[in-house]
Write a structure and sequence with these properties.
Layout (H helix, E strand, L loop, with lengths): L1 H29 L2 E2 L11 E2 L2 H18 L3 H5 L5 H24 L3 H17 L6 E4 L3 E4 L4 H19 L5 H19 L3 H21 L8 H18 L10 H7 L1 H16 L12 H7 L4 H25 L1 H21 L5 H20 L6 H14 L2 E9 L5 E8 L13 E7 L2 E10 L7 H21 L4 H5 L2
Antiparallel strand pairs: 1-2, 3-4, 5-6, 5-8, 7-8
Helix pairs in contact: 1-2, 1-8, 2-8, 2-9, 4-5, 4-9, 5-6, 6-9, 6-11, 7-8, 7-9, 7-13, 10-13, 10-14, 12-17, 13-14, 15-16, 15-17
Amino acid sequence: MIAELALYLGSAVGLTAAMTPLAAGLAKRVGAMAIPAGRHGHALATPRLGGLAIAVSFAIVVALAVANMPLSWLTDLHLSSGQVYLLLLGAGLILLGGGLDDILDFAPSTKLTVQLAGAVLAYFGSASIGSVYIPGLGSTPLGAADFPASVIWMLAITNAINLLDGLDGLAAGVTAVIATAMGAVAFGLGNPAFAVICFVLAGASCGFLVHNFHPARVFMGDSGSNFLGFCLGCLSLIGNRKNVAAVGLAASFIILGLPMLDMLFSMLRRTMQGRSPFSADRGHLHHMLVTLGLSQRRVALILYVVSLALGILGIVGALAGKPVVGYVLITMLALAAITYRLFGFRMWNDLLRQRSWHRAVKKTSAALVPGVNLNRSWKSLAAVLRLMGFGAAELHVYKEDGQPVELFSRSLEANPNGTTSMPPVCLDLRRNGRLRARLYLRDRKPRTVSMMYRVAILRPLLDSFEEYLHTSTATSTDLRAG
């Protein structure tokens, strides 16, 4: 059995690695290219549509595996042919919608509509929660709430993986870890067919990493992130069904903890900022870690380890029984709340102070327009930095050719000894891969809200400042004028 799992996993790795260059070539022909701009951190135009290679390889290997499985394995899934067709139709719709989005750049409402349609098809294809285990009450059917709860669950996981796809190799690597953990639970509970599907999904994700780990030569695009998230959502729900011995919902939430919590916290942060919780930004956990100076490779590896730790917790909880997985889930959520507090959230008075930061960032960003000299813009930026509790700041501005234009340095504290002795944080402002400015920040002592969280709040202003430098037509002499 283990040898067969390894064979299918290895086949998915090899096939996806071989097909990804073909998908990249197709992306170039149809114009599905990610152009460096805004919040995207890559320096060169990069083909998307890598998700096509993942999906096609996954489908081929699963089909071959099913054709060679003993009938007893397939009956353990308790899926009728009609349900299988609905699941395939839902997955195909998600893949098609994501692929067209990679080419045409759909509006968010269109993306959500396609995802919703796929989730509804999957629900009628047996991807439903059905019931939840409540300590003391046992298995409790959801009744009429099952349909909306199941659809929301699938939409949440689909978008959680999509939001995680902001760093080379991150979404594919984390998906591989999650799918492997789900497969391990299914194998431990005696459902080999479910385990094979999970391990094939993990293999397809690993095969894509050959071309997607930093520096990425191809991106999975929405076709890949939506497809992977949709598959994980469906697998977690099918595995939760009473007659399928696979991964339960509580264990799934633990295993999926990294993308799910990152999505939930990001939506909360955006709501606090007065923005749509579904808007895009650079405030995700992986962006924060890169902001602190860690390389993309190191951040990806760190988050792989975090996801692996959560996966092991989920495996232990699922195999030990429902009471244990409940305790593990409660412990994980408590630790997440404590960690999130360390990233910046305190009591109500801190919440109000942070709202004033968001307003200052928004107001100052709007004032950064061409024609305003650099010295005045620097003073406006420094005022926001002082308001947010930074102790000292230094700004280096560069021309398009990389030559320095000006150096600004300012203590933001009345007492120069009030800053910490820790090394400053360095933030690069780049345009199309070229360095336009470099901002060094030193924290105030004692520290109140963590620097990582404050930098996330500050990020829209830094993006506006970079845009101001790019669009300003002032000469270097004008830039130095006061």
